[in-house]
Write a structure and sequence with these properties.
- The complex is a heterodimer of chains A (861) and B (301).
- Chain A has 861 residues and is an alpha/beta fold.
- Chain A contains 24 helices and 28 strands.
- Chain A is 23% helix and 12% strand.
- A six-stranded mixed beta sheet of chain A has the order 22-24-23-28-21-27. Chain A has a three-stranded parallel beta sheet with strand order 9-10-11, with no helix packed on it. A three-stranded antiparallel beta sheet of chain A has the order 12-13-18, with no helix packed on it.
- In chain A, α3 packs parallel to α9 and α13 packs across α15.
- Chain A is globular and about 75 Å long.
- By secondary structure, chain B is of the alpha+beta class.
- Helix content of chain B is 26%, strand content 14%.
- In chain B, the strands form three sheets. Chain B has a four-stranded mixed beta sheet with strand order 6-1-8-7. Chain B has a two-stranded antiparallel ribbon with strand order 2-3. A two-stranded antiparallel sheet of chain B has the order 4-5.
- The chains are: A alpha/beta (861), B alpha+beta (301).
- At the A-B interface, α2, α7, α21 and β24 of A face α2 and β3 of B.
Chain lengths: 861, 301
């Protein structure tokens, strides 16, 4: 679900085929019948944007039919925990949770907490008002109040009306098979097929897995989509067990690595938080605000200090608080779309794009190109001159006259980049696996790797700032920057960087073996605590390539996974409360009387017995009981109900996408109240909803996606003749019914439009994207691959030009998987006629978008 | 020349001897695990330095390549059907999408080989059929001889050959290359002890390379399993050494009749009737000769 694995991860998909050959059922739930569906046992066609309804229905099915894995749920999840009596569920507040502040447009989460416990700053928790929680939040999250590792208020029998289990039951009780059918457009039969398959294939003897990707994340409720799957998997006892879990399909261009060693604004390596501008009152208070009293985030300071030692060497010390006061700060949501807003307002001087093509790949492409035109300078590093480097002379806005080349003041620098085959390095992908790759050939001419670029840039900046007396230059001066270089172009050693990331003893440079060895006194340095040990014993662990036929199925000697080469997280959950495997068939790790052992590194204190009860006042990992496998959570349990860490609710609720032809039939709160919108922003208009003027102009649902033949925004593939010829034109996928209704010709042209823009595409009529019956009427869905831009060997219009920039509030991701549009036959208007056409659409809609429910509503107390 | 009058033996038996002798190698393409990724098309082009075909949106499902030809030696076909994948009704979806990587069949009785006047086409020690560009004169006899339409004369100029030598057509000032190009079953890679580029690239092992005997056995077992599991329409194509081309060196497991994939259902080597035709012609000539002689002997008046 939320993914198209055969198309987008074809090599990884071979293992799904293996599983199928061994009798596994492969179920693909997707708005389109894709190349993955072709290999599946069953395809279920779903309305784009209704996944929480479907998954919530599965939760309801499990609970109503008592099909949950009782022992697992009772002992390993927070099902028995009783929630604060001030908590009000969406069922009682017409789609909002308690704590909603209509003025601020956000939640005060105090009423979501465990009864008897105060909400306490966790790693990444923000104080007062602004929220950029992101990846690192929600860890721990409960301060004092745990008694012997347990929250003060629980009902082990799961019957108390305010225990998580009962709250869950009530929350999803209206997600009946019939309601799922009318909301998602799936038949009751198909829905029950999935429920039965999942429940019959879970338990002691069997496990089921979910695989998802951006089909789930790219929604204004993206994080909650994944949460619903997490609830299902917890109820079925599938987490921490072989063949179970929820696999995020990540790996293209090391995207997992890009959050581990982050290119995100709000986190530092290993998901440590970027400090905020507000005055903590010293480094110790900062640590206090972020350390979790229990669990492995209890060693927050060790990870932090070791990182500072890696960055600054001996310049960072306890005396200067590890240079804490000099660190740059964030002051709010400084994410990509916020940056765009700043650009459009002329507040951004310069921008560096490395291996990214926002002019094609980001939502609301036109806004990005207009934003670039406001910069003083733009640096683009890429393999070929992409649209984000050439917009100043060939973007659609040049054609329409909205931009004029001679009037654009932006200075654009295009620097050619080296490909992955032209440098040493690693990819970190799905399942947290670091895989090293060796340079195969030298880069040509001026092409340089990212490592070369940033290293030499840093060197030059250090040299320029050497004599500076400005306080803001202190860090640059103190930066530990001596990596060995080789070859004529002075390429820095990637292995030297890996060694630093893997951690070492500061004095001896001896590599460390695990994050447990990290200290908070400056004697250890580590570039990323979760990667600590990847250079264990002085060996490049990610470079290990022992083939799988020479190992067991865990294959621990192929490459290296974080943390500590543990392949399955929370694997203590593969054994029962007493430490015995749930079954012989699904044996993974178990307690042998003296320690935990198995075919993978146990994700638990090796010598902690299963019946260990934490004493009074225990802290850090010692505060986790021997029968609670979820060691990163402060109470050691998996969270069915999330008391803190999320912006939009402790439980996932079906909300309609930001743009949808439908209203919610559950609540008058139609869409995620907490979603980020750029309301009334000229550059981000929204299509009207039902009841608003102009609504009939955009009756269809559209979704964007990738094809196997091309990669994301197309820079790498539209420039290669062998790939360009495989998919040589931008096209849309429509059903024969829609084609007949609108007059579209197979192989002909269509114009697709929203209040943002209009694009053209060739028409591919196919049965694979059928119309659905939702809330008693027919809705058509249109499929749009998003690879195309105005240049390179195969060019065309960009699907993302249609897209709005409303975002998920937790991670600020755009909703490119479900929105509304109109379609008509023929090519689109060109030049000025395009802007006139889009204007004429907007003129038929209201000037402002009002959704009364979330602006005026308060929650009864 | 393969034998026209004898039953199929191992073709390689005639082409190599002594140390050069090798068991017959081939492809088994199992379309039940093909995910339509086209890695085979790209790997083939990269290894063999085949020019790009030109970009045209064909709109035939996801197939923009169209067919095998001088610039396409692996072609993935996509067929959308309103049929279930399995007949046993286990949650059957009413749609299925067939995907198949097509290739030169390297026939046991290869008509292209039979009709080639220059000896450009030859049978290698691996039992494969290969065309030699430095001998091919572009006569095109092989093109209609192939029952599958695999062979094609290259119409683009040699300078687009991406470095292929020899470049005789360019030397002679010709605008078109004019020679025939086709799958060599990566003859050069086999000589180096490697498997062909396409089978190497295939992520799901849809394309399997190996000794033909072994592949045929494997295919039989695979068909058994699929039929047992209720796969709708699973069948082997060109596996049988007694069929019209003597069985193929590259044979397939299809999920529907060959016609659905654009393949001839019962191909027969074009030269199969050649002995008979020559016989008939000899008879006709003899009769004619008798008639002419007779007309002289008996026709004087």
């Amino acid at each position: 679900m939320g993914s198209n694995m055969a198309e987008n991860h074809p090599v990884g998909f071979q293992w799904v085929m293996e599983a199928r050959e061994r009798g596994a059922k492969i179920i693909h739930i997707d708005p389109r019948f894709t190349r993955t569906s072709a290999m599946a046992t069953k395809w279920v066609g779903i309305r784009a944007g209704s996944d929480i309804a479907f998954l919530g229905g599965v939760v309801n099915y499990i609970l109503q039919n008592d099909l949950y894995f009782e022992e697992y749920v009772k002992h390993y999840t927070n099902a028995p925990v009783i929630i604060d009596e001030a908590y009000i569920d969406t069922e009682d507040a017409d789609g909002l949770f308690s704590g909603w502040d209509p003025e601020q447009g956000q939640y005060d989460v105090t009423t979501w907490s465990y009864e008897g416990m105060e909400t306490h700053g966790a790693a990444g928790q923000r104080e007062e008002g602004f929220s950029t929680k992101g990846e690192q939040s929600g860890h721990g999250g409960h301060g004092g109040g745990l008694q012997h590792g347990e929250p003060p208020s629980e009902d082990p029998e799961l019957t108390h009306p305010r225990c998580v289990f009962q709250i869950l039951k009530r929350h999803y009780q209206r997600y009946t098979p019939e309601w799922v059918s009318e909301t998602c457009g799936v038949s009751v039969e198909d829905f029950l097929y999935v429920c039965e398959a999942l429940t019959q294939n879970s338990g002691r003897e069997k496990t089921s897995a979910f695989c998802y990707a951006v089909g789930w994340t790219q929604h204004t409720v993206g994080v909650q989509y994944i949460r619903t799957a997490a609830i299902i998997q917890q109820l079925l006892g599938n987490i921490g067990r072989p063949g179970g879990g929820i696999m995020a399909l990540r790996g293209h261009a090391s995207i997992q690595g890009s959050t581990d060693i982050p290119t995100l604004y709000n986190i530092l390596p290993g998901y440590l938080p970027m400090p905020h501008t507000e005055k903590y009152g010293g480094f110790d208070n900062f640590v206090e605000a972020n350390v979790a009293p229990t669990g492995w985030w209890g060693n927050f300071k060790h990870y932090w200090v070791s990182l500072m030692c890696a960055y600054f060497g001996p310049h960072a010390s306890a005396e200067n608080d590890w240079l804490f006061e000099h660190l740059p700060r964030i002051d709010q949501d400084n994410s990509a779309y916020w940056s765009l807003e700043q650009m459009l307002e002329g507040k951004v001087k310069g921008y560096v794009l490395a291996g990214e093509n926002p002019a094609v790949g980001n939502a609301n492409g036109k806004a990005h190109r207009l934003g670039f035109a406001q910069l003083d300078w733009l640096v683009v590093r890429d393999l070929v001159e992409i649209e984000s480097a050439s917009w100043w002379y060939d973007s659609p806005e040049i054609e329409t006259g909205e931009l004029k080349t001679e009037e654009i003041k932006t200075e654009v620098f295009f620097l050619p980049a080296a490909a992955h085959t032209e440098k040493d390095g690693s990819f970190t992908n799905t399942q947290r696996l670091l895989q090293w790759h060796w340079q195969a050939t030298e880069p040509k001419d001026d092409c340089r790797s990212e490592l070369w670029f940033y290293f030499h840039l840093g060197k030059r900046l250090k040299s320029l700032l050497k004599e500076s007396k400005q306080e803001r230059d202190v860090l640059m001066q103190r930066l530990n920057w001596d990596y060995p270089v080789h070859a004529q172009i002075e390429e820095p050693s990637a292995e030297a960087v890996l060694k630093e990331i893997g951690g070492y003893k500061a004095q001896t440079r001896e590599p460390l073996s695990s994050y447990k060895e990290l200290k908070d006194d400056g004697t250890t340095a580590c570039g990323c605590w979760i990667y600590c040990g990847c250079y264990q014993d002085g060996i490049n662990q990610p470079a290990r390539k022992k083939p799988h036929w020479e190992q067991d199925y865990v294959a621990a000697e192929w490459a290296w996974a974080w943390p500590a080469n543990r392949r399955l997280l929370y694997n203590r959950a593969s054994a029962d409360r007493d430490g015995n495997p749930w079954s012989e068939r699904k044996k993974y790790v178990h307690w042998n009387g003296e320690k935990w052992e198995g075919i993978d590194t146990p994700d638990f204190d090796e010598t902690k017995p299963p019946d260990y009860v934490p004493p009074d006042g225990a802290a850090g990992p010692d505060a986790i009981a021997g029968y609670h496998p979820f060691i990163m959570q402060s109470d050691g349990r998996s969270w069915l109900f999330v008391p803190q860490g999320l912006e939009d609710g402790p439980l996932p609720t079906h909300y309609e996408p930001h743009e949808s032809p439908f209203d919610s039939t559950l609540y008058s709160q139609r869409a995620n109240p907490r979603r980020q919108q750029h309301k009334d922003a000229e550059w981000d208009p929204y299509n009207p909803l039902e009841g608003e003027p102009g609504h009939e102009l955009f009756p269809h649902v559209f979704t964007t996606y990738r094809l196997t033949e091309h990669h994301t925004a197309g820079g790498m593939t539209r420039s290669v003749p062998y790939l360009a010829e495989l998919q040589p034109a931008m096209f849309c996928e429509v059903s024969p019914e829609l084609a007949a209704e609108v007059g579209l010709e197979d192989g002909g042209w269509a114009t697709i439009y929203t209040t943002r823009s209009a694009i053209e595409a060739r028409v591919l009529v196919t049965n694979r994207i059928p119309p659905l019956t939702v809330q008693g009427r027919t809705v058509h869905q249109i499929g749009l691959p998003y690879h195309w831009g105005q240049r390179l060997l195969t060019s065309g219009d960009s699907a993302n030009d249609l897209m709005h920039a409303a975002l998920d509030p937790n991670v600020h991701i755009m909703e490119t998987k479900a929105a509304t549009c109109g379609i008509r036959p023929g090519r689109r208007p060109r030049g000025k006629a395009l802007t006139e056409f889009v204007e004429s659409l907007r003129a038929q809609t209201a000037k402002t978008r009002v959704e009364p429910a979330e602006t005026k509503k308060t929650v009864p107390s | 020349m393969s034998t026209l009058t004898e039953p199929t033996g191992s073709p390689a038996g005639y082409e190599a001897w002594g140390d050069a002798k090798h068991e017959r190698m081939g492809f088994f393409t199992d379309t039940s695990v093909c995910i339509g990724c086209k890695a085979c098309e790209v790997a083939c082009k990269e290894w063999n330095l085949i020019p790009a075909d030109g970009q045209e949106f064909l709109g035939r499902s996801y197939d923009n390549t169209g067919e095998l030809g001088s610039e396409t030696w692996r072609h993935v076909a996509f067929i959308e059907q309103e049929k279930p994948l399995h007949t046993n009704g286990d949650g059957a979806t009413g749609l299925r999408w067939l995907m198949e990587s097509d290739v030169c069949k390297h026939c046991s009785h290869a008509a292209c080989l039979d009709v080639c006047p220059t000896g450009s086409l030859f049978r290698t020690e691996y039992g494969t059929v290969v065309v030699q560009q430095d001998i091919c004169n572009g006569c095109g006899y092989c093109v209609p001889a192939c029952p599958f339409g695999v062979l094609e004369k290259r119409h683009i100029a040699s300078t687009e050959n991406m470095g292929h030598k020899p470049d005789l057509p360019a030397f002679l000032g010709k605008k078109e290359d004019g020679r025939v190009w086709k799958c060599t079953l990566c003859y050069d890679r086999l000589k180096g002890g490697h498997e062909p580029a396409c089978s190497h690239a295939c992520p799901t092992k849809s394309i399997q390379f190996g000794p033909l005997d072994e592949l045929r056995e494997r295919a039989d077992k695979r068909l058994d399993k699929l039929q047992h599991d209720g796969w709708n329409g699973a069948q082997l194509y060109l596996r049988d050494p007694d069929d019209g081309i003597g069985g193929a060196g590259a044979f397939f497991l299809l999920l529907d009749d060959p016609e659905v994939y654009g393949l001839p259902p019962d191909p027969v080597v074009a030269t199969a009737k050649l002995p008979e035709m020559w016989m008939n012609m000899a008879t006709a000539a003899a009769v004619l000769a008798v008639g002419i002689v007779g007309s002289f002997l008996f026709g004087r008046e």
